[in-house]
Amino acid sequence: MARFFGKWYCITDLRFWLLVIILFNDAEQVNAVWPMPQRISQSTQQYTLNPQAFLFQYSNGSVVQPGCSVLDTAFKRYFAIIFPDVTGEGRNSYHIWFEPAAFTVFVDVKKDECDGYPDENSAENYKLSISAGQAVLSSETVWGALRGLESLSQLVYQDDYGAYFINKTEIEDFPRFPFRGLLLDTSRHYLPVQAILKTLDAMAYSKFNVFHWHIVDDPSFPYQSRTFPDLSNKGAFHPLTHIYTQTDVRRVIAHARLRGIRVVPEFDSPGHTQSWGKGQHDLLTPCYKGDVPSGMYGPVNPILDSSYKFMAQLYKEVALVFPDSYVHLGGDEVSFTCWKSNPNVRAFMAKMGFGSDYTKLESFYMENIMNMTAALNKTSIVWQDVFDYHERIPQDTVLEIWKGTPPKYREELSRITKAGHRVLLSAPWYLNHISYGQDWQNAYLVAPRNFSGTEAQKKLVIGGEVCMWGEYVDATNLTPRLWPRACAAAERLWSDEEQTSSVAQAYPRLQEFRCKLLRRGIQAEPLFVGHCKHEYQGA
Amino acid sequence: MARFFGKWYCITDLRFWLLVIILFNDAEQVNAVWPMPQRISQSTQQYTLNPQAFLFQYSNGSVVQPGCSVLDTAFKRYFAIIFPDVTGEGRNSYHIWFEPAAFTVFVDVKKDECDGYPDENSAENYKLSISAGQAVLSSETVWGALRGLESLSQLVYQDDYGAYFINKTEIEDFPRFPFRGLLLDTSRHYLPVQAILKTLDAMAYSKFNVFHWHIVDDPSFPYQSRTFPDLSNKGAFHPLTHIYTQTDVRRVIAHARLRGIRVVPEFDSPGHTQSWGKGQHDLLTPCYKGDVPSGMYGPVNPILDSSYKFMAQLYKEVALVFPDSYVHLGGDEVSFTCWKSNPNVRAFMAKMGFGSDYTKLESFYMENIMNMTAALNKTSIVWQDVFDYHERIPQDTVLEIWKGTPPKYREELSRITKAGHRVLLSAPWYLNHISYGQDWQNAYLVAPRNFSGTEAQKKLVIGGEVCMWGEYVDATNLTPRLWPRACAAAERLWSDEEQTSSVAQAYPRLQEFRCKLLRRGIQAEPLFVGHCKHEYQGA
């Protein structure tokens, strides 16, 4: 594998940095951080780390102290990541609080959110200063501290004899976009909880901070609802083995929280609901063939009060189960064929004065749903389709752009931000789509704010999402299809665009990061010919 | 997942089959065999199997008896495959030879090749007759018995309560093509031995019978040679961790043998040899820039006696290490740029009267190499390029066709078989190439004998190969990229073409077979939306 020898990405004054390269050897390589920090200065001054004398410690002045669940568990986790060869007793050496340590990571956090959840306003900025015998990591929140620990862990490297090193380094870092999401689709194929947890681990390594759980769709309804158990009893691929119980969901949310990741569930309607109809009588629109029902069903029936009552109850449960203040309502790809075929729907259209414009009926439905979630104090995300039939969308609704190639989605970015809505970009990051060769480069070269609009409009782009739709993906191929391709989007969403505009410069760094992912047990596929010191052994 | 209810593929007389469907339930599904046997008759008559009272037994009349390494180990292996829920003691129940058994598989083999290797002439035909209390599996060779055991294992199924069943079935089966290969490339990425062994397992499930080991190439030389240890010491990605020792190679060959799989090594020259040059001085052609060496190297230097001496010694070792009577010599993609630049090569061309036709030089080289392997009593396989510069190719050389799309490779099939050479088809089966969607269908619809030529020419197509080149593939993504896509080629190479011409009919059978692969621990990716009863759990 191409080896990456440190480059000086130095924004701050370099005068205080003394560069002395005494001997050139493997151990002197300066390691990179992925995604690239906003400001990083690295020196070739190298410190040896001894796992037996390495500890994480809360600074005296830190508001957060031992007992903080997010950081206590992160210290354990990162100790194992930083020292992958250390097993058993060694792994607990960070517990030896009172012994003198050769290297101490002092962690200083200003706000106590230890028992909370990360949210849209969570600050993720941090500073990391590594010098002889210590690292100082300071951040406003525990979420920022997590990002700093991740960077720290990537700076540690081993020589051919297994010794651990870190170089003198200064980092000042913050994300470019507050919303850096990854969508998994657990309806077209069921993903075992273990596969979701593993994905959350890899997300944390790339500093993603939102897990968009596209939990149900046409093919199956694996969410085990407390209010409507028949939805999964009858709509899941299997009512016992292919479902997410309340315990499973809690486990996913807890795992994500400890990694500073939000969980935004999507219950997509009125389309994409075929599986819902199996467990909920009269929810879907009966399609007609001529004057008689055909036996087929279409989208949620938008003319019945019972549909809205059901949706309100379902969303009430969802709002309780998923703590995040956002919820994704879907609203995409609604086919009008079935609605048009149904005489009752046609009568309703006439009564409402919608004429033959079924987008008005769709808007009517979505408006009702958005009012429900607003009443639950949730911010709604919807797919761009909901804007495209543009009727009364609450201003704080976030639109997710998923259609088209660059010129097309840029126009959509212009239009939606002009209307004052916040947007998420996912169109160029449909990573379920594959092609032969290095297609990570396309994902890398996306410029989310490159569209015609004012500065105010550009600021309405709050981030983007990698989507991994499940038509051809399940736990067998999820990880190599996602990683390291998703890392390209991760850097675009976190790092400064000008500093990370070159695919050629990114390549060796991404190669190296991919090897780190392997070392951490993530089955990330290769970018091109080459090798990692520690190859994936599972088969 | 779409469930497959048995179809009657009945070539033999059906009069003796009594079909009584008393009750329709899950356990009555009739299971399919992949690849489709030449003749299979299945009844809905169902027998319960009890793992505690199930045994494999050599027939009294069988030439092969206990102590036969190939079948003794196969009985163990298939017991575990047939009864995946049985662990511990249960797994040994086939040892209870003298107790009355409720179901006995009598195995009758006519030739004792228990300690030999499968070869190009090995008969793989078998007959399998399943009736009340017994199965009778008869075959000419142990290799045929292995194929029959595989089919038997696929006929067993479980109901929702975990009980095991098999239906009354008659199979008469044989392969359409004797050479059904799969290529792995261990040079562009190193594949741990475990990944190779796992691939051999999956190959056996699909009745592939040749592992084409493209073991070395430009990027690395992982084969640890006894004669020339510097080849891997200096040419491997890492001289200790990224090599195949002699023990590793023996392990692969032994694992393959027990599954009736030949191992054909490829040491590709004169091109694709950059890594060889690191450990073998003066082997490669020095390239020139004007009048001086540029420091770059080209293909093997074809004008030096030392090159041929080296190749002869290397192939002598290869002939000893790899027992198969075939060896692949490569001969593809030789660039003439470096040869042309070298004044000594140009002088040699003049001396030999080759003019400026470098294909003559290439032929000269290949002819020498083919003579070496002929002297070692090995049959040579070479890539089609060697035919394309058509000089004196020994008649028994097998040409492998790898270039072009259907019309193009069909012309090549015509040309090469017209010249009387045997051919292998791999052009349509480069499964390292990927695209979004169900691309297994392309691999399935290949018709290897659909080209213009006589019947005699068609018979010269001895089979084909799935190729998994390593530019973008290593152990992280090998298995889901290969399986179940390679199964499509496997059925094309084994089964009757007319019986297996429909993608629509193949789809549910392949879905079911893919679920069986998952159950056997093969990380085979999904074909499309759906689920398996037992999903892949690793992540």
From TrEMBL, chains A, B:
Residues 177-496 form the Glycoside hydrolase family 20 catalytic domain. GO terms for molecular function: beta-N-acetylhexosaminidase activity. Residues 1-32 form the signal peptide. It holds the Pfam family Glyco_hydro_20. Keywords: Disulfide bond, Glycoprotein, Glycosidase, Hydrolase, Lipid metabolism, Lysosome, Signal, Zymogen. Residues 33-155 form the Beta-hexosaminidase eukaryotic type N-terminal domain. It is found in: Lysosome. InterPro entries: Beta_hexosaminidase_sua/sub, GH, Glyco_hydro_20_cat, Hex-like_dom2, HEX_eukaryotic_N. The active site is at residue 333. It is an enzyme of class 3 (hydrolase). It catalyses: N-acetyl-beta-D-galactosaminyl-(1->4)-beta-D-3-sulfogalactosyl-(1->4)-beta-D-glucosyl-(1<->1')-ceramide + H2O = a beta-D-3-sulfogalactosyl-(1->4)-beta-D-glucosyl-(1<->1')-ceramide + N-acetyl-beta-D-galactosamine; a ganglioside GM2 + H2O = a ganglioside GM3 + N-acetyl-beta-D-galactosamine; beta-D-GalNAc-(1->4)-alpha-L-IdoA-(1->3)-beta-D-GalNAc-4-sulfate-(1->4)-alpha-L-IdoA-(1->3)-D-GalNAc-4-sulfate + H2O = alpha-L-IdoA-(1->3)-beta-D-GalNAc-4-sulfate-(1->4)-alpha-L-IdoA-(1->3)-D-GalNAc-4-sulfate + N-acetyl-D-galactosamine; Hydrolysis of terminal non-reducing N-acetyl-D-hexosamine residues in N-acetyl-beta-D-hexosaminides. It comes from the Eukaryota. One of its GO terms (cellular component) is membrane. Its main location: other. SUPFAM superfamilies: (Trans)glycosidases, beta-N-acetylhexosaminidase-like domain. Disulfide bonds join 68-114, 287-338, 515-532. GO terms for biological process: carbohydrate metabolic process; ganglioside catabolic process; glycosaminoglycan metabolic process. Belongs to the glycosyl hydrolase 20 family. Hydrolyzes the non-reducing end N-acetyl-D-hexosamine and/or sulfated N-acetyl-D-hexosamine of glycoconjugates, such as the oligosaccharide moieties from proteins and neutral glycolipids, or from certain mucopolysaccharides. The isozyme S is as active as the isozyme A on the anionic bis-sulfated glycans, the chondroitin-6-sulfate trisaccharide (C6S-3), and the dermatan sulfate pentasaccharide, and the sulfated glycosphingolipid SM2. The isozyme B does not hydrolyze each of these substrates, however hydrolyzes efficiently neutral oligosaccharide. This is Beta-hexosaminidase. It comes from Chanos chanos (Milkfish). The gene is hexa.
